[in-house]
């Protein structure tokens, strides 16, 4: 965010604003971490602020400080719609296209009179905000919120709650600091958060060591369903609604499954196809290593997008046809995948 934009925000915050922070549908650690960090920070500035999430979060985020104050759109449509309509400033965090909040909430956001501030690290931002702070080189939106607070000259306002929220988004979106987007600037921010006194061991435990027996059983099914296309250095997993139901599926249970495909020796492209009968779609998560852009792949063929090495997509067809379509497309990218493997 440039100095001019910081000054505009400072100016706006010196008046009476009604602020809403919006996260994307199916919020992850970075979406909730960044939204709540900004929420705590703005509350510290005595601002009138609320967080609205399109739908509920997985249980592994339920410990985040003040997450219980987040208004869930899907469960409180009238109150959330009124809150959005009355807002004067709306921060959209960790997404860059209004479609990422889901159809019903998107229709509301398209009609509000508030000015939008986008803070996000995905590629190819849409043009809906009066301030667009977009930086795809950053590993997480939480890291961007840290720099936003830094530019506001308020680093000393980062308390333990803000620091714990920021740490959560950074650690989840960097794969615990291993993805290529992790930089020295990421570690500098983390060093500061640790100096503030966060309990990083407890945060890791709360985020990653909360498996239920059913989830591990479901992981077993996912691994049994794992298939490999060796000449394309690709692995994919399918999980049907029947398999989800048989394991008492809860939101977040399939988080991270796709990474098992990518952990196979020789694999640079991994996909998971998850049937969602309620929404009538197949939800896809795509991951890659090296230069092969899953953002481009998801955008071109599966109505999605994200980052070069982590993206999401969807299909309205059956799981069987979606996989067939995927297997038909895959050979077209054989050369790129081979290069990604060799580099
Ligand atoms: P995940 O596979 O964990 O759902 O998402 C991976 C990354 O891609 C995340 O950064 C997420 O925000 C983004 N993403 C997931 N689904 C979509 C989608 O349908 N459209 C776009 N543009 N990005 C997505
Ligand atoms: Mn993110």
Strand and helix layout:
Elements: H1 3-13, E1 18-22, H2 29-44, E2 48-53, E3 71-72, H3 77-86, E4 89-93, H4 103-109, E5 115-120, E6 131-134, H5 141-151, H6 160-173, H7 184-196, H8 200-208, H9 213-225, E7 227-229, E8 234-239, H10 241-246, H11 258-262, E9 269-276, E10 281-288, H12 294-301, E11 305-306, E12 310-315, H13 319-329, H14 334-342
Parallel strand pairs: 1-2, 1-4, 2-3, 4-5, 5-6, 8-9
Antiparallel strand pairs: 7-8, 9-10, 10-12, 11-12
Search tags:
single chain, six-stranded mixed sheet, binds guanosine-5'-monophosphate, 343 residues, binds manganese (II) ion
Spell out which ligands are present: guanosine-5'-monophosphate, manganese (II) ion
Q: Distance between the terminal alpha carbons, to the nearest Å?
A: 34 Å
Strand order of the main beta sheet, please? 3-2-1-4-5-6
**Secondary-structure element pattern, one letter each:** HEHEEHEHEEHHHHHEEHHEEHEEHH
Number of strands: 12
Q: Assign the structural class, choosing from mainly alpha, mainly beta, alpha/beta, alpha+beta, or little secondary structure.
A: alpha/beta
Shape: globular
Number of helices, counting only DSSP H or I runs of 4 residues or more: 14
Overall residue-averaged pLDDT value: 97
Helix content: 40-55%
> Any idea what the radius of gyration is?
20 Å
Poorly predicted tracts of residues = none
Strand proportion, as a percent range, falls in 15-25%
Main sheet record: 6 strands, parallel
